[in-house]
Amino acid sequence: MVTTLRRAERAARTGTATPTLETALTPAPRRSRLGYPLFDVDVHTSFRRAEDLLPHLPERYKRRFKESGVGDSSATFLSGAGGNRDDATAPDGSPPGTNAAFVAEQLLDLYDIEWAICTGNGILGLGTIPDADYAAALARAHNDWTINDWLPRDPRLLGALVVAQQDPLQAAAEIERVGAHPRMFEVVVSSGNVAPFGQRRYDPIYAACAALGLPFAIHPGTEGRSITTPPTSVGYPARRVEWHTNLSLNYMAHVTSFICEGTFSRFPDLRLILLEGGISWVPPLLWRLDSDWRQLRSELPHMKELPSAAFRRHVRLSSQPIEEPDDPADLMAVWELLDAQHTVLFSSDYPHWDFDNPYAAFPSSMPAEWKRRIYRENARELFAKKLAVLEAEK
Amino acid sequence: MARPSQGVPAPLIDCDVHITWRTTAELKPFLPRVWHDRLGAGRGAPRIQPAFHMPIRGYHKEAAVPLAGGPPGSDPETLASDWLDRHSIAYAVLNHYDAPVISTWGDTDYPVALARAYNDWLVARWLSHDPRFLGSMVVATQDPHAAAVEIDRIGAHPQIVQVLLSSGTRLAYGARTFRPIHESAARHGLHLAIHTGTEGLGTSNPPTPAGWPSYAIEWRAGQPLNLSAHLVSLVTEGTFVEFPGLKVVLLEGGAAWLTQLLWRLDKNFKPMRSECPWLTDLPSVYLKRNVRFGTHRLERPEDPAHLWAMLRPMDGSSSLLYASNYPHWDMEEPHEAQVLACASLSERQRIAYENARELYGLHPALAV
Asked: Domain range for residue B322?
């Protein structure tokens, strides 16, 4: 396999290869040590150079993109920990997550990942750009690049449809434009935002998601940037360890909003995926919401069921970065409370620095049936309809 | 796991009892004349008025109304007989619900004057009345140096045990700008208490990291998030390294969320510890050692055993303090506190009495 890959890379370097690198993958991937192939819901891939996206952008934005890219990517809270794995740069020099053959070698083949959702790398900053039209154009360009230039490189790659939440109507139109593509599996936005995502102003997005059966996913990383609210309700953190730790607070506020605004009652088919926002905070939050709902429900007639019931039906959480207590039994006790067996989806976060190795992601004490559900079945159930079509064509 | 259910042992220490004035005129003797007009003006009196509608609020129907008039919690004798005597409470920490809101106001001089007036009123009307009353002084955090001066002025009073801060702020409490407050409080052996309720008020940040929610239930669900961010700041800025004896008491914002924060912050600290080289222990060590939580509005799962599954990894039996929230609408008598009802006898003794006694360095109560 290595020889085939090298040949493909050499061809890529010498310009003799077009994006047909999937030929490099024809050798059977390694079999997973777990005994079944995995589903990874958070793989960060991207275009290699700004020039790759330009053909998909309208003329009027080409110069702007070359000069300012995806908005304010100043990454106020990046520290020495960096953003990507040091070893994720491909042998041909492609930046991490931009060479499909190398993604296959380092992730998909190595761990027998059958399906991987590509959530972008750096593109979600478009959700923090003040100019809604430019942001929407970037989203369209990225989706067209994903469909035309990226997904064809490996049949295991699936697309996350990027939208700019600044203009929910344009976002909905974009979902309608490309959401029916068989390999576009979800809609993804940045969790840094101007408002909680459950609010009515975003309903057009959810109507489009529900109509097309696309889950709505939120990914962190833009908290506090550009037009977004301060990353905590006590303002701006002082350094990255603080900022990163606090990312899950933003998730708690967003999911509270979805539940308390009755978004799931208005869109019973809507599913929400909380990517990379932590997990073990769920039980205390739901206990608080359930008990408060019982006391305050006269003000909340649009909430049709217990918050914990709405959460259980509509919300899924990605596993990385997993919390790490000294005693793994403590983690399992808490995950039992949030029914992790049914609510958690495996994610590697490849090629980011805090990548979770699938073979070491969970405590060894986790029951085998939980692992099977988290590594594979929960995602397969969530994306069942589109997966059925793809697998029928295999 | 079944936990024995027994009565709550006496004596108790109640770490969150809300006092107030009959009218704000009670503050006037302690406030310079120049501010008197303002105190009587529409928005001159400290009052927490959230943007969200709460269908239930106000006072508990069983809390005693003073014979002389005024709301529950406005008369020392009535408070003592209706609450402390009835429940064998050895000490009660008196907090004014509204007073900390002055730190969210846009100006500086009036809040500084009002904090002084409040503290003098607290001593004169309450602390001198009953040795069981312990006081939370307030400061105006707009001017940390004036706040430190105020702590130096009044903080040595033997019954003043902590500085009560508003949860709603422009900056997290670990920020260096608050160092004079930490330093002065630590020097006087006082702790910092943060009470929820002011998130999003005045000049403070939006009440959730995602911005302004729509309903009171979301605002309330956001309160633990606010406290959590304060804690991360206090730990990573090294406040507890510099002032190891300083404790932070979090009131009405739950506690069960701390467990996952310990795990998350420790994990993040390991690769990023070069950002805060002053920390000589894992963040979880400071969080367990220097933070305490009131029991009122603790998370309340249907199955109490679930609560302890979250509380055990954070050493809940050492960090929780019984807090009633008397006389507000959702107050909890000792037997109504779920966490006490489902704790072992020794855990109950710690939460209802011993933890607070140690925290505030109180003399052991005589048999009540």
From this structure: 13-360
